[in-house]
Amino acid sequence: MDYISTRGRAPALDFAGATLAGLASDGGLYVPREWPRFSADEIAAMAGLPYAQLAAKVMAPFVAGSLTEERLFELTTEAYGRFAHKAVTPLVQLDEQNWLLELFHGPTLAFKDVALQLLGLLFEEFLGRTGQNLTIVGATSGDTGSAAIDAVAGRDRIDIFMLHPHGRVSDVQRRQMTTVLAPNVHNIAIDGSFDDAQAMVKRMFNDSAMTDRFAIGAVNSINWARLMAQVVYYFAAALQLGAPHRKVAFSVPTGNFGDVFAGYVAAQMGLPIERLIVATNVNDILHRALSNGDYSQGEVTPTAAPSMDIQVSSNFERLLFDLGGRDGLALAEQMAGFEATKAMQLTNAQREGAAALFSSSRTDAAEMSAAIRWGWENCGQLIDPHTACGIHAARTSGIDPAVPVVTLATAHPAKFREAVERATGHRPSMPSRVGDLFEREERCTELPGDYDGIAEYVATHAVPKG
Domain Threonine synthase N-terminal, which positions (predicted)? Predict the structure, then answer.
């Protein structure tokens, strides 16, 4: 399997190369040259497999030529051995139609662990072959940072620089990053939004002054390996609910479109998905794009669901590329127009292609709180604000009652204790595995939202390629 850029000009890479590169050299995102596809019988044969074994089966076509399925299974066994629940991503039934897929049993209590625990091992595997050093530069709206830092802290040949918007992540999210004092971990709080941080990360990938000296790598969902690992839990949930003999719908809280794009990939691989519901908060660029074709950037509004406070959804580019006939040069022109004007209209082909599988929803603050209350009062489940957006979207989707709807529970409610307590009167307790988080020393550097200052800081503290 090799990987091509959504913008058509970067050289194709194998899986190892795409994993270490992160962003393509032409500014595009790597995608597989073609989607592997399983038959119904092959999917049925996966039923009942332990999660690590299922993960190796689903991901094997994507890593072909870089890893054997046997080596991949060794890595998935190690990655998911740290999860607090033996099922890794257990399903919980809420009512006759609605289910929760709990993705927060990893070490940092968020769905990002499912991919990043594996990605850390993949980095180590491939760097060991090349002997080079990797400088990871990432942006986080809350959960990616802590999950990535946990995955690579203390690992040889890796430095990680994680940017987060100052004052716009929860106390738990911040402390899960800033209390990791490993020498290869650098937390940077910038004056600005997540979108500002993400733009600086993308700029660094295309800054020859940096890329000539350092091997810049990505842990954000611009890295294909992140999305590949997230495809697995769609298979896990659907198989438990009767796939391939029964269709399943998924409601996915999303800001950067990575988690829900993984569901699109699962559908391309043959998983019978009835619908993918894109659940946004009031930062609703994806809802506007999918409902009326308007992909226009607005101002970021801070909410109780900070990981969704995004107005530029990087992974949407992968969908537009696929639905636009995989014409990289045409998409490059379309994205250049968006980057220049902050506005873009989807083409007819993109709109019609998306409508075949996707629907969308916008959840305001009152609806978010109501969904949290509903989960507690009717189902005995405390859910975080991001998951609440997914629940609201699922319960108002109008999907046939015979089709199960799985909402992805993206974070443990204890990561957002104040919002959950305001809605329910109950304060979620921190899992014991988090330990003394609020007693630990913090270490973080505050910098202006200025690219040159960020680049200088990285260049001063990173180890060159070698």
Answer: 3-80
Number of domains in the chain: 1
Q: Are 261 and 229 in contact (CB under 8 A)?
A: no
Contact criterion met (CB below 8 Å) for 147 and 177: no
Q: Kindly report, residue by residue over 337-353, the tens digit of the pLDDT.
A: 999 999 999 999 999 99
Residue 56's closest CA among 122, 111, 112, 104?
122
Supply the pLDDT for residue 101.
98
* Dist CA 311 CA 179 (whole Å): 29
**Residues 66, 125: Cα–Cα separation, whole Å:** 10
Residue 42 forms part of a structural domain: no
- C-alpha span between 395 and 460 (Å, rounded): 50
Integer distance in angstroms from the first to the last C-alpha of the chain?
Answer: 28
Q: What is the pLDDT at residue 142?
A: 76
Q: By C-alpha distance, which of 8, 28, 25, 15 is closest to 314?
A: 28
188 contact partners, CB below 8 Å, separation of at least 6: 161, 162, 163, 164, 444, 445, 446, 447, 454, 457
Backbone φ, ψ for residue 449 (5° rounding): -80, 60
Q: How far apart are CA 278 and CA 287, in angstroms?
A: 7
In whole angstroms, give the CA distance from residue 275 to residue 151: 32
CATH at residue 358: 3.40.50.1100
Q: Which residues have a Cβ under 8 Å from the Cβ of 310 and sit 6 or more positions away? A: 141, 194, 195, 198, 255, 256, 283, 285, 300
Residue 351 and residue 293 in contact, taking contact as beta carbons nearer than 8 Å:
yes
- How far apart CA 183 and CA 219 sit, in angstroms, is 18
- Residue 247 in domain: yes
Q: Please, which residues have CB within 8 angstroms of residue 385's CB and are 6 or more apart in sequence?
A: 303, 304, 305, 368, 372, 416, 419, 420
As a whole number of angstroms, the distance between CA 320 and CA 377 comes to 40
Residues of the chain with pLDDT under 70: none
pTM to 2 decimal places? 0.94
Provide the domain limits for residue 273.
91-110+224-424
SS (H, E, C) 154-218: CCCCEEEEEEEECCCCCHHHHHHHHCCCCCCEEEEEECCCHHHHHHHHHHHHCCHHHHCCCCEEC
- What is the DSSP annotation of 92-128? EE-SSSEEEEE---STTSBTHHHHHHHHHHHHHHHHH
Judge whether 5 lies within some domain. Answer: no
Quick one: tokens of 366? 């009152």
Which of 463, 143, 141 lies closest to 312 in space, CA to CA?
Answer: 141
- Give me the active site residues, please: 112
